[in-house]
Please model this.
Amino acid sequence: MKYLDEYRDPRLASKMLKRIAERTSRRWTIMEICGGQTHTIIRSGIDRLLPDKISILHGPGCPVCVTPVHIIDKALVLASRTDVIFCTFGDMMRVPGNKEDLLTVKARGGDIRMVYSPLDAVQIARNNPRREVVFFAVGFETTAPANAMAVLQAYRDSLDNFTLLVSQVLVPPAIEAILSAPDNRINGFLAAGHVCTVMGYREYNPLAEKYLVPIVVTGFEPLDIIQGIEMLISQLENGTCRVENQYRRAVTEAGNLKAQHIINEVFDVTDRTWRGIGNIPLSGLALREKYRDFDAEVRFKPGDTVACESSECISGLILQGAKNPFDCPAFGNRCTPEKPLGATMVSSEGACAAYFRYRAKTVEKAG
Model:
């Protein structure tokens, strides 16, 4: 397929992997930040094709996975209301709260609708003026422009029955939280190309300088990731620490200025709790005072709950790169995509879901 096959060329991948092997003189630990990249790495077996001296860790690059339990519980409260049409992306349906998930509420009669865009939820609000419509606004900077646009559209149309339940998070503060941890062992990062398409990569320069780690903005196809790793290894072996852009066909240093303007118009930066990690200062977005009428938490006051995570689930350690899914004794037996203990097994970008889909059968055969 044109524009796709060239990024999956096995002969070119082999040449790049050979160069990586030739350049690697010592042990290096690399973390990819995006769940989409995680799935490409596991599906393509890139981590197994690299030299033994290179370790790949999976970071908190799945916004569904890091949505905290108390926000999920608020979503469950709102979705259970008879006056509410609750709109969400499909991968939020099975993410467990304290006691249940959205799919359970839907089976019980809740009016929960899976949409492809927040603007779909705005249209549902127009079509149902006597119902309250809540959209679950989850995501990194990538989804923030569309969520902000939905608020602006509702504001301009004077829709008084549309709100957002906001759980927007930001990538650079999460990287800093990992790098500043006392047990940090990351030597270099593959940054998420889709986030940088929106935000550019200027925010990463201070992180590379402060923590002396190279960061490479990388795409999502196998050759993108292999080339990104090659660029990181080249820097690490040369002792340099700067930000590079592998994903030049989509990312510029400044990013999408119009999208950034829309985000800044609607949202303020705020502290956010990340599931499995905890509170990260200035790592999220919240609606500005001007648009607080579109905040579902303000309008409905769904209350707070105390998180009661499964004692077996190690998704927090997986999101921090401290463990991988095979380190979990519940993986593949007591925890599956159909009956997940944690969010990393649910989301289409979760590390546990990637291992279950692409590696579980291999492990069974080996056993």
